[in-house]
Design a protein that fits this description.
- Helices cover 78% and strands 0% of the residues.
- The protein is mostly helical and 294 residues long.
- α4 packs antiparallel against α9 (204-238), α8 (192-199) packs across α9 (204-238) and α9 packs antiparallel against α11 (259-289).
Length: 294
């Protein structure tokens, strides 16, 4: 059996080999220059940020000692020797975790509701008016750029301590984050059904309702579930500034040096988020997998 392999003469092969070697050497040099620039940027950033390795190494024992103390009861025994004493405030903490879940749920619903409508105005394939599209996108950028803690501090100062401040802060940030995700989902939709509705005399809103929405609704729900999972974590953090939920109780335990309470509350938060992560992840995969099925 013969093959069609072409063997070039040395007069043609030698220049090609030299060109290949030069290209490899150039790529290698570019990689070395890029690595050197990256290392230089890291060093400069560390100097500007005052990162000191001697401070880290000399005080690392404080961190390890703290972690050792959070798993020791007041009687100097390990928390594993007396689980009921370790979780003495279980029902109180469970109620506060429930409050945290409610804050995250309400904030997600309010933010997703607003993002649902704004996303169609921010999508380039549906919003023909440049001013409307520009205004919608800038509004979403503002909502998601300002950190939730900043909003929470403002609302705590305005409305006092409690869940309301956390709900408002998370709602605004959820509006900005989901609005961005929703608009990108809409921009990836097939526009032929929408154009068909418009061509038959349908209005813009009818085209969105009957041609675009069926394509994007499952992805909307998937993004909303993911945002709820994120908001559960964020609502626990917002409690540190007095915005309600389990975070506020965690801050009290840290400030009063109730070490075993800190570990118990943190473990409850981790367990709650893990359960929600598994549940929402399963729902998201189900929704994405069922998209397009009758």
């Amino acid at each position: 059996m013969t093959t069609g392999l072409l063997i070039l003469p040395d007069t043609q092969l030698t220049p090609l080999a030299r060109a290949y070697d030069r290209a490899r050497a150039k790529a290698h040099a570019q990689m070395l220059v890029g690595a050197a620039l990256l290392c230089g940027a890291v060093v400069v950033s560390a100097v500007i940020a005052e990162v000191r390795l001697d401070t880290l190494t000399s005080h690392i024992d404080r961190l390890t000692n703290y972690f050792a103390r959070v798993f020791v009861l007041e009687n100097k025994r390990s928390v594993l020797t007396d689980i009921p004493e370790w979780f003495w405030g279980f029902w109180k903490w469970a109620r506060l975790i429930g409050e945290t879940l409610i804050i995250a749920y309400v904030a997600t619903v309010i933010g997703a509701f607003g993002a649902f409508f704004v996303s169609f105005l921010a999508a380039s394939n549906l919003s023909d008016n440049p001013f409307t599209r520009f205004s919608a996108r800038r509004c979403l950028e503002f909502c998601r750029t300002v950190p939730e803690l900043v909003f929470a501090l403002l609302f705590v100062a305005a409305f006092g301590l409690g869940p309301l401040a956390g709900i408002l802060a998370l709602s605004i940030h959820t509006l900005g984050a989901l609005g961005k995700q929703f608009s990108e989902v809409v921009e990836n939709a097939d526009m032929k059904p929408f154009e068909g509705v418009i061509a038959t005399g349908g209005t813009w809103s009818e085209g969105v309702r009957f041609a675009v929405l069926p394509q994007v609704l499952s992805n909307f729900a998937s993004c909303g579930l993911l945002r709820f999972e994120i908001n559960v974590r964020e609502s626990a953090i917002l409690g540190l500034v007095g915005a309600g939920g389990i975070g506020q109780e965690l801050l009290v335990a840290v400030r009063r040096f109730y070490y075993s309470d800190v570990s118990a509350i943190v473990l409850l938060i981790i367990a709650t988020i893990a359960i929600i992560d598994v549940a929402t992840g399963t729902l998201r995969h189900h929704l994405i997998g069922s998209e397009g099925q009758p």
